[in-house]
Amino acid sequence: MRRPLEGLRVIDLGSRVSAPFCAGILGEQGAEVIKIEEPGRGDRLRELGPYVEDGDELYSLYWSVEGRGRKSVTIDLRRPQGQEIFRSLAATSDVVCESFRPGTLERWDIDPSRLPPQVVTARFSVFGQDGPKSLQPGLNGNALAFSGLMHLTGDPDRPPARPGVNIAGYLTGLFAAQAITSLLYERDARGTGTGGVIDVYMYGSVLRIMEWTIAAYDRLGMVRNRSADSLDIAAPVGNYASRDSRYVYIVGGSQTFFERLCRAMERPDLVADERFATAAARARNRADINAIVSQWVSEADADDIEARCVACDVPAGKIYDVADLTADEHVLARGDICTVQDPIVGPVRQQAPFPRVLGEVPSAPSGAPRVGEHTDEVLSEVVGLSGTELDSLRAEGII
């Protein structure tokens, strides 16, 4: 397989999701990823469920997924000797991903100003490295709330809802990985020899995908609100309950898709109905057209509805849970699920690396390491510490 980032070394100095996910993406594209963890305790993500039993302890499957594909080195960064080791390790590296509260690395003398100029440092936070809110604590939900996305999520007559997964954390990691590769390209391909510092804040990644929300407020005074599974600007669009208690997501908002949906429904009369004759008219009368589609879907099983829509080239499909997804013939044929050999629980099916080079099926990453599993290997081979030095540092609790 092609590994375009092979030869790069990335230090994962993050916790939870965003910074480690960014480092993991770079690792899946070939970079060596070294995770720095607190001696004894390790990354906080190791403490989050769901869990499987490992003897008398509980093992996090969250960690099994997001800790994979890297080496674990334990260093106490609060102590001067640990900071010195980190600076030595960073001097041999290309990228540092960190997610401490702004100012923490400065207090520890391991901030970007203390690192070689060729290093690219991605600094993850909720609110950014400066500004009135920069020191406020927060996680995914805070970023979703502050960015406005949570306000748009859910039913209009109910409280805002949190999306089911850590959208802000993962999205921030994706944006950061792209920015990191951009600076590496500038450093290497353009020959500047200089890395740089990226301010990666979680609410900013969500804000960037908020579509037309700000523009419509600026020019139209429109405050966008929750619209459940439908859209204010297009109809029919939404999740419709079938006879067999499944849900089918159908998109018929554009004129082309609406006409195709009418053929699937065997309702050509709807195309000529002045309430639904144009996209703008359907948006105004979305309650009426959505009710008609809902009635149609309710009279047949989900498989049948999906088949009728697909036969007429309508974007539609059953809403899957994880059991549906992992058994789907398309997912299996594409290799979207891989088996990772976890050192604690053995083979575990997980999401395969993404995206991929066309024609290649990505290989499974190595399993998430035990706490400090690679400390001696990395600090001896990369930093050059002797066995005696490692024993002394371990006795003092620095590694």
Oligomer: single chain
In terms of per-residue confidence, which ranges show pLDDT below 50 for 5 or more consecutive residues? none
Distance between the termini: 35 Å
Q: What is the approximate shape?
A: elongated
Order of helices and strands: EHEEEHEHEHEHHEHHEEHHHHHEHHEEHH
> Residue-averaged pLDDT, rounded?
95
Kindly report the spatial arrangement of strands forming the biggest sheet.
5-2-1-6-7-8
Fraction of residues in helix: 25-40%
Topology, please?
Layout: E1 9-13, H1 18-28, E2 32-37, E3 51-54, E4 57-60, H2 61-66, E5 71-74, H3 80-90, E6 95-98, H4 104-107, E7 120-125, H5 140-147, H6 167-188, E8 196-201, H7 202-207, H8 213-220, E9 237-241, E10 247-251, H9 255-265, H10 269-272, H11 279-284, H12 286-298, H13 302-311, E11 316-318, H14 322-327, H15 329-334, E12 337-342, E13 346-351, H16 375-381, H17 387-395
Parallel strand pairs: 1-2, 1-6, 2-5, 6-7, 7-8
Antiparallel strand pairs: 3-4, 9-10, 10-11, 12-13
Describe the model:
- This protein is of the alpha/beta class and 399 residues long.
- Helices cover 37% and strands 16% of the residues.
- The protein contains 17 helices and 13 strands.
- The strands form four sheets. Strands 5-2-1-6-7-8 form a six-stranded parallel sheet, with helices on both faces. Strands 9-10-11 form a three-stranded antiparallel sheet, covered by helices on one side. A two-stranded antiparallel sheet has the order 3-4.
- α4 links the parallel β6 and β7.
- It is elongated.
